[in-house]
Amino acid sequence: EAARYLALTKDDHGTGNQVGVLRDEIGARHGDTSSVARLVDCAGVSYDFMTRVNALEALKRLGYFDDPLFPGLMSAMANPNGRLRAPAEAFASYFMEQTRLARKLTDYYRSRVWTPAERKLIDPYFK
């Protein structure tokens, strides 16, 4: 039924882009790499916090944790809005339990310049 659902909802987005995110999650589960790319984009700074949270949750369910996601994830972790920051921190913590993935995110963190406010929010994860 996935193809039918995707076709029926192609123009729907829903609050916090819930429908669009779910549609892309289903597409990603069926091998659509453009769906993964859209989820990574939805986790970025161009979207409202609910869309970003929904995208991060979908990416977590998919087990996606790769370099293209890091800018959006780190900006969410440094965001003063706790309703975005907390889910981003939970997402990062989940994947940071795996040594290889923790190293990738730590390397990304160390390769960037952060404002004092961002550093205050993100530093605890990388000490």
Describe what this molecule looks like in 3D.
The protein has 127 residues and is an all-alpha fold. Helix 4 runs parallel beside helix 6 and helix 5 (70-77) crosses helix 6 (82-96). It contains eight helices and no strands. 28% of the residues are buried. The radius of gyration is 15 Å and the shape is globular. The protein has helices at 2-8, 18-29, 33-42, 49-62, 70-77, 82-96, 99-110, 116-122.
SSE layout and pairings?
Layout: H1 2-8, H2 18-29, H3 33-42, H4 49-62, H5 70-77, H6 82-96, H7 99-110, H8 116-122
Helix pairs in contact: 2-3, 2-4, 3-4, 4-6, 5-6
The largest sheet is:
none
Average per-residue pLDDT, rounded, comes to 90
Structural class: mainly alpha
Which spans have pLDDT < 50 for at least 5 consecutive residues?
none
Radius of gyration (Å): 15 Å
Residue fraction in strands: under 5%
> Approximately how much helix is present in the residues?
55-70%
Shape: globular
C-alpha termini separation = 46 Å
The total count of strands amounts to 0
Order of helices and strands: HHHHHHHH
Number of helices: 8
State the gist of this model:
This protein is an all-alpha fold and 127 residues long. It contains eight helices and no strands.
List keywords for this structure.
127 residues, globular, mainly alpha, 8 helices
